[in-house]
Amino acid sequence: xxxxxxxxxxxxxxxxxLNEPVFKNHVGYTRVMRQRLxxxxxxxxSIGTEFIGPAVTPYNKALLxxxxxxxxxxxxxxxxxxxxxxxxxxxDDELLVGRPDYTPLTEEETKEYKELELAMRGAPNxxxxxxxxxxxxxxxxxxxxxxxxxAEVKTHMCALDLNIPENLSxxxxxxxxxxxxxxxxxxxxRYAEKLKEKADSATGDKKAHFEKLYKIVSRVPAEPARSFHxxxxxxxxxxxxxxxxxxxxxxxxxLYPYYKADIEAGRITPDEALELLCCFLLLPDAYIVPNAxxxxxxxxxxxxxxxxxxxxxxxxxxxxxxxxxxxxxxxxAFSKDNSDKLLRRAIQVNATGATQPAIYNDDLIxxxxxxxxxxxEDAHYYCNTGCTEITPIGCSGIYPxxxxxxxxxxxxxxxxxxxxxxSVKPILDSFxxxxxKEIQEQQLHINRRQMERSRNGGEPLRVSCLVDNCLASGRxxxxxxxxxxxIEPTFVGISNVVDSLMVIExxxxxxxxxxxxxxxxxxxxxxxxNEPLRQYIINRIPHYGVDDKDVDKxxxxxxxxxxxxxxxxxxxxxxxxxxxxxxxxxNVTMGLVTQATPDGRLKGAPLAASSSASAGREIKGPTAAIxxxxxxxxxxxxxxxxxxxxxxxxxxxxxxxxxVLALIRTFIERRGMELQINCISKETxxxxxxxxxxxxxxxxxxxxxxxxxxxLHKLVQQEVIDRNEQSFI
Length: 729
Fold this sequence. Notes:
single chain; alpha/beta; six-stranded mixed sheet; two-stranded parallel sheet; 14 strands
């Protein structure tokens, strides 16, 4: 583990990042104002050969005078302008460099920004679709460097016969890639020059520190990485300018050879490598907005199906415990063939309140991906690329969370269509048809967006250089150049619907206490003057999450209805839909505008998080909650499934560690997809609500992602507080 000096450095860096605007003011995740200003300047001024504005450079002028600009190349040029004009940001303690410039705009720049915003209204609208949410082929970047990518692009360009019309769009794509890649090298050079300046003006240890960084940044990401330190720097430098969520993938597979070579050559010690990995996990806190995920995955199996457990696997878990980052986190892919040693270490890290790693069922996910047509080697080589959304690494053009569907509303509509129903079945049939129609309508909107982006662009083109098949085919991600292009809609309110169906069966069809219309009238009135009934529903009718077969049968039926509702819908890229139940915070935002539901939930209250039981309803312990959660088939839901478990702080250590291990093994064996753990007391959470200044970096798991508790909306905080605190006593 790290010594006191190393720990002090890590904590100073973390404190610095948590005082940056991205954390304090939530300005990260998309381009910050200074970068956006440079983007708009370049985009607006790239119409002709005359450049107007303070961002002109010889580089910009040469490009403008030599190339006509299509809409897509204007975007690439504007991306390049961001990189060309970024100011290097370097903190004296940093071992890895590359952060946005948060310097506030001057009064003159603010005026210019507003004028350019108005002008940009005339630009093609390619927004409102998920950008990023994928893991790039970082091993390729480490093998060939940006110069290798540039050489590959030029080779493809030279092979094109431009007398063939269809090759013009390919040439345009390659031109845009070159603009952005070359500008990435310009930014790298500026960082190296800044480090040289700092080294020249420093003395002693600081001079040696900056000289070492200068040598590293002078080389990567332009050239292939030769060391563990260079590999981490190259990956981060490429990713931090992308302004979206591009996940680091299976770091213990592609970083281990660099670490092993360094150790054998005596170039690094395990503690030095751990310190670097801690810095790597911390960096996203400096540029990704709180409550967003930027994960690395370890464990599981490699492309050939071999178990992966090496020094980096365990080192990543150690780093997660040390840094407790809310953004740069570790996820664990866990196969039934992985060791208890690895699982124990994962439990121990979670027990510290780190809220990580989340545990993904490697066997089930690989099976689920192959069922939808993903090649076996790609199905093994996946990661979570949102919060729990699953995509294959380095070959994805997949859209996750597109969009969120409120299935509680669909159930209420189905009830109204079946006032005279004699059983639950016709309600479920209507539910599927209503949902199918809604999905079709929403998919039309998404298809139009994809069509527009195929014509005018959206993703930074340099991203496509690290996505398999794009360079070879001459098509960007937005043109469908990636190997896999399905869309992952997500469905909110699973447990509410399951519990509601049980209530309908009980009150309307079994006990016959109410007609369907009478029950609807009570719900429409938000249970006014019917609180005893609501308490009867909550306390006497079984709920999902307590291992009751009469309720859990509806989980399977609702799951099948959702799958049926997604069938037969084709995407613009001639692909299909793959559902998920991950809810982010949409269970709260959708709940705010959703009327009361038959399960006793009041109007405006949060819907259930992901596929977990409704908060507070999992009253028979963690085993019962796990058994309910795994009572239906998770393999079709590669859009992401989350099962929440919350333990008291003392319930995951000591003798209980064996019990938790057995519980997780049961979850894996029963084919659950993903399990996430909170280990925190209700008292701590309540105090954090009252005294947020004392809990700046307190972490909780929400729905697939970790979040700084005090940065969450009060309703989201309350949903986490309301979850049952499980105990083995």
